[in-house]
Amino acid sequence: MNSDNKLRGEESMGIGKVAVIGSGIMGHGISQVVATAGINVALNDISDQVLEKAKSHIAASLDRGIQRGKLTEEDKKSILGRISYTTDIAQAVKDADLVVEAAPENLELKHSIFRKLDQYCKPEAILASNTSQYSITELASVVANPSRVIGMHWFNPPVAMKLIEIIRGLETSDAVLNEIETFSAAVGKETVVCKDSQGFISTRVLVAMRLECYRLVEEGIATPEDIDKTLRLAFGHPMGQFELADFSGLDIEPAACEALTKTFGDRFRAPQILLHRVKAGKLGRKSGEGWYKYDK
Ligand SMILES: NC(=O)c1ccc[n+]([C@@H]2O[C@H](COP(=O)([O-])OP(=O)(O)OC[C@H]3O[C@@H](n4cnc5c(N)ncnc54)[C@H](O)[C@@H]3O)[C@@H](O)[C@H]2O)c1
Q1: Pairing with 45, which of 13, 25, 236, 273 sits 20 to 30 Å away (CA)?
Q2: Pick the CATH number of 203-287 from 1.10.1060.10, 1.10.1040.10, 3.40.50.1470, 1.10.8.60
Q3: Where is this site: Important for catalytic activity (predicted)?
Q4: Are 294 and 288 in contact (CB under 8 A)?
Q5: Which residues in the chain come in under a pLDDT of 50?
Q6: According to the model, what pLDDT value does residue 93 have?
Q7: How many helices and strands in the chain, by DSSP H and E?
């Protein structure tokens, strides 16, 4: 990997092998996208059971692609053949050119993973995090060479969403940024780049909009149904904010609000109407009820 990468056009020549840490909602989707682009991926998680689940989610998603006529059985076979599964992080990352960390949103956990990456990866490997809010500079503080650490924020579901938000830590090098832009294009995604700042672009804008929707309900001005309908029909959003919150899970929101409030003040404080729902276990689709009710 070197700074000539920016001259290489859209094809990523430097990244031939990727490791993904965490095989949950994001990690298995990211692995599928990378393998579909013809690149080998090692997917790592803490148990074989979880990895089996990821494997079946990927196979089911590829089957949907076949049903829609976008893939053939042969494509499915070769994509699946490019993904390996292991609970051994050292094994997963040892020859990776790029590692995408997609473990749960917990700073201590992410730091412990980055310490391991520092120990087991090739010195020239790029270390990316899919964090939705943690400072990339802070994540990079536990590795010997922070210039190789970068934020690579994918969106849910990674297979369908076109954007990757790239976050540049204080010490991220130009070469690493160029390589990640090139790689993102090679796996079929568009990119935006922003400086390391709480909530980046997407989380900051999303939370601001969502909290205003929650306040409209809290003040008794409108129902979730009508606010979602407004967002869909007046602004062309594919989903309303209440529908989207239920899809992603309400339990991740209080921590995001707290971190944004620490940085930007009261405009990001979580409203009672959200906190009470989370305390009552109404977490969205996964619990059967959030802002809306779902058949289990
Ligand atoms: N879900 C979303 O909509 C979304 C969107 C963008 C970014 N993100 C970010 O992506 C990251 C992952 O989110 P997710 O929704 O996929 O979470 P998830 O809970 O679905 O998956 C996390 C996976 O990491 C595994 N894991 C836990 N500890 C591990 C360890 N030490 N080593 C390896 N694997 C480990 C878990 O077993 C789990 O399978 C988070 O930082 C989150 O903020 C999530």
Answers
A1: 13
A2: 1.10.1040.10
A3: 153
A4: yes
A5: 1-12
A6: 98
A7: 12, 8
